[in-house]
Write a structure and sequence with these properties.
Layout (H helix, E strand, L loop, with lengths): L13 H11 L27 H8 L6 E6 L3 E6 L9 E4 L3 H11 L7 E4 L5 E9 L2 E9 L1
Parallel strand pairs: 3-6
Antiparallel strand pairs: 1-2, 4-5, 5-6
């Protein structure tokens, strides 16, 4: 079976995204990608408050639904219908959602509150959203 391998992110603040993934979500260190050019100074992404309402607005779908493609083994993609093509969020699973949320608050990372969302007939998803370097992350844990 084929599966999702990795996500490629471009942001004016790669160091902030790297710190968030390592220090808040405890994703292991990787390595530096060498560049052909000297790093340029880019203005930081404008941080704004993150709420469940702002997340829904940012999502940009038309409300008509879509698809979940894949399985837990292959990894899954949520595909929604909307006028503007874009990737609206990166979902990262954790067993330690409360700890991750507290770390966001301690570091001043804009994030929503934690909510339990009904997902399917047997599971719910406890989740919050955080914006780092202009990238929206959903931090989640599936709960029976």
């Amino acid at each position: 079976m084929d599966r999702i391998n990795h996500v490629k992110i471009v942001t004016p603040e790669p160091e902030a995204v790297d710190r968030f993934l390592r220090e808040v979500l405890e994703i292991p260190d990787g390595w530096t990608i060498p560049g052909a050019e000297r790093a340029q100074a880019h203005p930081p992404a404008k941080a704004s408050p993150v709420t469940w309402e702002s997340v829904i607005a940012r999502r940009g779908d038309d409300g008509s639904g879509g698809f979940i493609t894949g399985s837990p083994e292959s990894r899954q993609l949520q595909i929604l219908r909307g006028a503007k093509p874009h990737i609206w969020s990166i979902a990262v699973g954790t067993r330690h959602i409360e700890r991750a949320h507290e770390r966001c608050l301690q570091r001043g990372i804009p994030c929503s509150d934690v909510q339990l969302v009904d997902w399917n007939e047997r599971d719910g998803v406890r989740a919050f959203f955080a914006e780092v370097g202009g990238i929206l992350f959903e931090v989640m844990r599936v709960e029976p």
